[in-house]
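Model: You mentioned two targets. I'll fold them one after the other.
Researcher: Yes, keep them separate.
Model: Target one:
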Amino acid sequence: MKKAVVTSFLVFFIALTVALFSSNWWLTFINISFYIAQPLVIIGGFRFIYEKGFFDMTISSFKRLFRSPVERDYIDDEDDDETKKQWGAPLFFSGLIVTLLTLIFSYVR
């Protein structure tokens, strides 16, 4: 959760920096924040789904299908869940936080 909050503040800082050089800074701040948050939601969401193992069965089936018959008998799949670096959830949740806050900000003004 700490990474998501830090990423959200970083997005708002970047948007505020860009918005200060604009004549209509509030609207520019909201737009830039929203534009930055959307790729975070999309990329983080796909990565979050992948990290949770949604596609593991499909990937393992394709690996077994394209192996030679000798390899199918002797090689067992090894899962290295401990070595995976998980960064999908912080991106996804920081994108959601920024998106929801920009929607609220857009109705405030």
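Model: Target two:
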Amino acid sequence: MGSDYSYQSKSIWQYKEFTLLLSASLLLSIGNKIYELLLPLIMYDQSGGSAIVMTSMRTAELLPNLFFGIFIGVIVDRVNKKTWAIMMILSQAIVLLGVYLMFGTGVYKPMIFYLAGFILMTLNYGFFNTQVSLIKLSVPLNMLTSANAKFSFVDTFVNIMGPVFLGIVLSFLSMTQGILVTILLYMTAFLLIKYLSISEIQKVASKKSFWSDFKEGWFAFKDNQYLRTMTIYVILVNSTMSVVSTTILFFGIENLGLSNSSLSIILSIAGVGGLVASLTINELRKRMKLGVLFGIAIFLNAVAYIGLYMTNHLLLFAVSLFVLGYATTIYIISAYTFRHEQTLTHLMGRIGGITGTLFRIGMPITMLISGWIINFWGSSFVFLGAAIMNLLVFMSYWKTSLSKLK
């Protein structure tokens, strides 16, 4: 369901539950960033420098959203969201502890770590889906763009400080010991979520069957033309974004000769671009339609990928990462704000699960293929393919009614 977009003078920071949720999200984002960078790097190191092993690890991490995303959304709408969020955080900490113990004792079996990555991302998505619902419950409807901008600010702040912090961690600790830092952050976030109190999350679970709830969410999605159209474009853009994010790691190490710690610090430049986007998105939203912002972000993604394709020294690499961070943040905020504004509160978990699954449906396939492409043709070919795809998507998108959406 659409909604009129308006602004109010009350500060979003006056909403205590929003502040708690955002603080927990900050800690979890830092923890996620550390292990998302560490696990592929550890696998790359353990495998003797195999791009296929690295991308296979990322593929395993992407599959949960494809298999379980829709069903997790139904569950989230039926359960106590605070309890669910706590379970997701604690379970991730336990899995990471197991990963740490295996690496620490010299156990290296790729399939075990693929499975661990799969489970971690299943739990991570379980929390993220709950967070999407809790954001809408924590602030008024007309503050959702501001709320999403704050959460995006957290993500981009982590893109700046996370890699830098990882570089510092790797300067003093081994890669496996860095996993312990993530566990500590998760446990601190757990304590913050325990203090979260939103009346709506205490409601009695739906008396309808699981499949009735699922069908209700599916028909709500199917009947919303704008939401369906936006989802198609997100599927295409996300497929390129996931491939590029992993290829950048391989490119920095193999083509530019960067160390793990140096690469972590360089990657923070993308976070600077995202930070700028987070600080300017509210003003941009006042001046531009939401559909226009979404389209501009797709075009800027293509520009960034072209820059990465042409990169042969650190300066162009850094500029391309900045543009990529800026474009990605505008794109994510626009997509999530659109989904919030088009969805009724009691359907948020289901719509979040359905769209979240569809958003990522192409990512595991393109990720798996990219490893072989890198092996045979090199990283630059991936960047070029992603640029062409985004340009084609942009030209198609600009002709749709979605690009005119307020």
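Researcher: Noted. Anything on target two?
Model: Residues 13-196+209-404 form a domain with the Growth Hormone; Chain: A; fold (CATH 1.20.1250.20).
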